[in-house]
User: Fold these one by one.
Assistant:
Number 1:
Amino acid sequence: MKIEHFGNYDEMSVRAAEIVAREISAKSGKYVLGLPTGSTPLGMYAELARLAGANKLSFDSVTTFNLDEYYPITRDNPQSYYRFMHDNFFDKIKIDKKRINILNGEASDPQFECESYEQKINSVGGIDLMVLGLGANGHIGFNEPGEFLYPFTHVETLTANTREMNQRFFSSLFEVPTKAMTMGMASVLRAKKILLLVSGETKREAFRILTDRKITTASPASFLYTHTNVTILSDLD
Ligand code: GLP
């Protein structure tokens, strides 16, 4: 596990975009990119869009898989991750919309949706680079701390902490969905490379627990220790 520290959020974001751009450009043929939502990756998305706009990066060969989505949620809900990704990234770059994969928050059978998503990731040969954010409670995607973790894409019941943390995006706590669909920890850990972004004071405790070098279901992020190619970028000292 390699950790790089940055003096501020912008420097961390530029470095994240640089790593993603370098990885995409280095591989000939198709490239499969796993993507997160949240406030943390916004700077990276802005920089990636800037690089693409300046013709320094092309997404022609890129297929994307988003990590998670609330359930149920309509695509046109401003808080859906579908909208988040289009508003903050996909609508700002040139990418074949057929290569964008996001769990469908409108699915009538969420279990089937999750299984199909997992199969689709496998059918394209797995994820080359999985970019992640860190939950204040140590969650990855929506894999919440608890007695056990689910390996594959599944429906998760959100913890009170996560709903409270994400309340800032909704008009009230009542509006925050109680469930979500998320890639599981094994789906994440099967990516060839992982890039974790950690930013802001609310993550300090989760980051400290992560750097304790212990693996525990109380901190899903700690399972990143079982992967051989993880880079963490942080603006925390
Ligand atoms: C959400 C997402 C996670 C994300 C986390 C942190 O709960 N499901 O994938 O990493 O929040 O978000 P933020 O970057 O806004 O702190």
Number 2:
Amino acid sequence: MLSPSEQTAIAPSLVTTKRITLSVESPDPAIIAEAAEVLRRGGLVAFPTETVYGLGADALNADAVKKVFVAKGRPADNPLIVHLAGFEKLEEYVDEIPPLAVTLARAFWPGPLTLVMKRSILVSDVISAGLDTVAVRVPNHSVALALLREFGEGIVAPSANLSGRPSPTTAQHVESDLGGRIEMILDVGSTAIGVESTVLDVTQDPPAILRLGGLTKEEIEEVAGPVVIASQNDLLRRSPGTRYRHYAPKARVFLIKEEDVDSYRLTLRDLRQQHLRVGCIVHSALLANVESGDLIRVLPSSPKLMAKHLFSTIRELDEHAEVLVIEEVEELGLGRAIMDRLKKAAN
Ligand code: TXA
Ligand code: MG
């Protein structure tokens, strides 16, 4: 248990959160300059990337980085991703750049691929949570890139949610979780991909996927040859943060396969008999036909569109339902990242 003085020490300080709307096509340079100034003063700015919204802080200011952990309620042993404006900045933050990292960066940056490599002395222990590596990526978003260029240095950015909540895909999600705890939110509406970046450890051969995400295993393998998906044991050693509960709605979550229509019906009947409010997220025409009601959401069956809408749908139904019944997807391509999030939500 923390003593009262320790609790005050880790309580986020209350600030006024300024939410500013800007255009993806041509982000207003004056707003970008204002956001960069907040970062220079050691403040926190949430900004959109192509995956989810990130909570940004100056990577070279350890006090600012600590504020990120406090604002999110994030355990200190869960390391952060450093975002860069381009490949050219990489050698400042990374000590050894394996040839394969160069190939992958050329193929997929800017984009939803995070590479784990040996860290340079610029990267503090706070960022890497004491590991000898650092995770880096170049996001593919006009606002994120404009901010990174204007700021000039690396920006650490975990997903801009309270620790344990689904990642934010709109500025509204960020405000609900972090309003009053961060200085600024740059609002462009919904993010394009909807699940976080794929985290790939390239310090080993073959490289290991530490987190499935927006870039598929198949896409990586076309460029890099075979990669492995890290086992649970591996993860505990190399990516300590993954042991924490992620993507957790308040509601209990049940997963149902498309072919299990009978068990779907029984589960629903059983839950309703217990007078529980049940929300359903389905994507096959089959399941959509089985039930109707105001807590039913039918997602598009293309994995791309499903990923885009997944977290916002879970957040929305979680406001009204005590139990969520969610239809599984095939674990292929982007479906692997979707199932990874669903299994964690159901855990
Ligand atoms: O798409 C994304 O990656 C978003 C946007 C904002 O860029 N960011 C994001 O950050 O999802 P976060 O903090 O929510 O997730 C970072 C993941 C965690 O699973 C963490 O354990 C892993 O990256 N990670 C960070 N540094 C690492 C390192 N040095 N070694 C292994 N894993 C690392
Ligand atoms: Mg996160």
